[in-house]
Write a structure and sequence with these properties.
It is built from eight helices and two strands, in the order βααααααααβ. With 219 residues, the protein is mainly α.
Length: 219
């Protein structure tokens, strides 16, 4: 049986996730840079960490490891969860780890810290929207997803669930576990967990309106 891919096949999509076209390479690098900036804006807003960061903070507090070390370990574990979903890493998987980390630092180091609650809320909203839309763009390049996004896409493939439902469920679950372990939760954390999946879903819907045919997969 064949079914439609949860992420539309856009004109810039690569034919092979280890052989990017110039257009797909440009889109994925640019979108991941924006993802890093979006995450940086959330950090600058200081209204709570994103769910996966809360999860990493909680584990770090319980184990005594640094957050960076925990993030690396969690990424490896999430990649292992790809195995039963029959997912394979690609160029995008590697770029995800490198580019986003660089541009989070660029944003945090170069954008002035908001000094009013209104500006902090604006930073939070812009960061969330930019992160969600950019996530859809980089996934549409079909160069392989990052560990967490790959898990989302794999579950959509396997169980025929909506992107918004899967992403929101994952964000809420890791957020709850992170909070129970001692991670920092704020209003930004809750909005990110409940909202980013639906921003991705809305972007997917817009993508489908502007393409003539979509790739199907065998399931």
């Amino acid at each position: 049986m064949s079914r439609r891919s949860p992420i539309p096949t856009m004109p810039w999509a690569a034919d092979n996730q280890w052989q990017p076209k110039w257009s797909s390479l440009f889109v994925i690098c640019f979108s991941m840079a924006l993802m890093g900036i979006g995450e940086g804006l959330l950090v600058l807003a200081n209204l709570g960490s994103s769910p996966w960061t809360v999860f990493s903070q909680g584990i770090a507090l319980q184990t005594g490891l640094s957050i960076g070390t925990v993030i690396g370990i969690v990424s490896v574990i999430v990649l292992l969860l790809w195995i039963p979903l029959k997912l394979r890493p690609g160029v995008g998987t590697i770029l995800n780890i490198i580019i986003i980390a660089i541009f989070v630092d660029v944003a945090v180091d170069n954008i002035p810290v908001p000094d009013t609650l209104t500006m902090r809320i604006i930073f939070m909203v812009i960061g969330l929207i930019v992160f969600g839309i950019s996530t859809t763009f980089y996934l549409s390049c079909q160069l392989g997803a990052g560990p967490r996004d790959g898990l989302m896409v794999g579950l959509c493939f396997k169980y025929h669930w909506k992107v918004g439902t899967v992403r929101t469920s994952i964000e809420v679950i890791v957020c709850v576990f992170g909070f129970l372990l001692g991670g920092t939760v704020g209003i930004s954390t809750i909005i990110f967990a409940l909202g980013v999946g639906w921003i991705i879903e809305a972007t997917v819907i817009l993508f489908r309106r502007y393409i003539k045919e979509d790739k199907t997969i065998e399931v």
